[in-house]
Write a structure and sequence with these properties.
Largest sheet: 4 strands, antiparallel
Helix content: 10-25%
Number of strands: 7
Strand order of the largest sheet: 3-6-1-7
Strand content: 25-35%
Structural class: alpha+beta
CATH class of one domain: Alpha Beta
Shape: elongated
Radius of gyration: 17 Å
Oligomer: single chain
Number of helices: 2
CATH topology of one domain: Aldehyde Oxidoreductase, domain 3
Length: 137
């Protein structure tokens, strides 16, 4: 099941959002065994990709530790059928995406050792279409 908002103010939105270049957000954590997945390029991640990465990471760590997802798909992407003629309004909402900027933290995993955490994050990031880095904080 894909991640999406439960309720929005409007059903459909304009495509007015532009991708940010870089992110200046930082996370200061006191936990010694913490791993972060950080995006190295800007792009869009849809709810299915985020959920697939989450499931893969949780499966590899055997549901130990704590996994935080710091992005949420809140941008609606609408699409009309390919065989539809022109006109008759905007298409229905097809999927939801989250815009990510370079340097933005996507996932945090803590409470687990390095031998189990780093391979789990590598297998989870294989599901994402962006270049990412795994940091040990």
């Amino acid at each position: 099941m894909s991640i999406q908002p439960k309720k929005t103010k409007y059903r459909k939105y304009f495509k007015t959002r532009k991708l940010p270049k870089t992110s200046t957000k930082t996370h200061k954590l006191n936990d010694l065994t913490c791993f972060a997945v950080i995006a190295m390029e800007s792009g869009y991640l849809n709810g299915h990709q985020i959920e697939a990465a989450r499931q893969n990471i949780r499966r590899k760590v055997k549901r130990e530790g704590k996994l935080e997802i710091l992005i949420f798909p809140d941008i609606a992407i609408s699409r009309k059928a390919s065989a539809a003629r022109m006109g008759k309004g905007k298409g229905k909402v097809d999927h939801w995406v989250a815009s990510t900027s370079a340097g933005q933290t996507l996932f945090l995993l803590y409470g687990i050792d390095a031998e189990q955490g780093i391979p789990a994050l590598h297998s989870g990031t294989n599901k994402l279409p962006l270049k990412v880095k795994i940091y040990q904080l």
